[in-house]
Amino acid sequence: xxxxxxxxxxxxxxxxxxxxxxxxxxxxxxxxxxxxxxxxxxxxxxxxxxxxxxxxxxxxxxxxxxxxxxxxxxxxxxxxxxxxxxxxxxxxxxxxxxxxxxxxxxxxxxxxxxxxxxxxxxxxxxxxxxxxxxxxxxxxxxxxxxxxxxxxxxxxxxxxxxxxxxxxxxxxxxxxxxxxxxxxxxxxxxxxxxxxxxxxxxxxxxxxxxxxxxxxxxxxxxxxxxxxxxxxxxxxxxxxxxxxxxxxxxxxxxxxxxxxxxxxxxxxxxxxxxxxxxxxxxxxxxxxxxxxxxxxxxxxxxxxxxxxxxxxxxxxxxxxxxxxxxxxxxxxxxxxxxx
Length: 339
Prior knowledge:
This protein has 339 residues and is mostly beta strands. Helices cover 6% and strands 39% of the residues. It has helices at residues 86-97, 267-273, and strands at 14-19, 35-36, 38-41, 50-52, 68-70, 76-83, 107-111, 117-120, 131-136, 143-159, 168-175, 181-184, 210-211, 220-228, 232-237, 240-246, 251-259, 285-287, 299-302, 305-313, 319-326, 333-338. It is globular.
C-alpha cells in the first residue's frame, strides 16, 4: 500500500446535533434534522471502554489471553465549545431543562419543584430528552456517531474584551449507549449556523435589567452562566445502559465581573450578612434588555439567588467578581434562559 499524501485541517471537522425521536435509534439525516454547532475546535470524544491489563498468574508478561475489554458498561462523553447560535442553542437548552422538543417559546426554564426525569427503552415518546451527536469528518465514511445523548453541562459566557462580547458556549454530552458507529457514512448538514444567529452582551443596553442579587445598573466586563443537570445510567444490556435518569441536583450559577462602584460596593456586606429568607425581589439576578425575557433575544433570569462569592478583581480599574446561585422559592422558576 502506497502512502496517502492527503491532509486535512482541524477546521474541516464539524459537530452536528439532532433531536432524537426514539431511544436506541439514531436520528436519520434529511430534512432539517441535523444542525451544525459553531465550534472553535473539535476534540476527541471520550469512549471510556473498560480495559483489564492485569498480568495473570503464571507469567511476568501480559499475555494475549489476559487482555479484556468491554464497551457496554461505560459512559461516553463529548465536550465542545464555540459560539452560541440560535438553532443549536434552542436544542441544547431544551435538552438540559427537559422542555418539549421543538418548543416554539424561545424561553427555557427549570421549575423550582421539578422532579426526577427518566427515559429508557420502554418509553414510547422521547420528545425533548435525547439528542443524536455526530462528529463529522472531511474523510468519507469516517463520521463518529453517537445516539441517546443528553446534555449534562452547559456554560454560556461573554467577555466585553473578546469578540465584542459575543456569547460563547461550552457543552458536555453523555450517553450510556454503545457507540452507533465510528466509521459512519457522511451525514448531510441541512441547516447550518448564520451570522444573524449570534448574540451579544451589548444588547443589554438598559442598565435597570443588568442586576445581581437585587443590585442593578451593573457595568459588566464578563459573565458566565453554568447549568448542570447530571445523568445517571443504569440497567446494563447488550446495547449499553437501558435507562438514563436525571435525579441529581439541577444547578444554575452565574459568575459576573462588574466595576467596583457605589452600586456594587454593598455586595460585600450582602455576601457576609445574607439570609435564606430574604425577599425574592431583593435577591433577583437578571441579565436582559428588558424586564421580561423574549424569544429571539438572549437573556437570563434567576428570580431568587444567594451569593456564593464576592471578591476584588484588580485590573486597570478595580472590579468585583461576584458569584450567585439560583435557589427555589416554591413558585417561580429556578432559572430561565431566552434565545
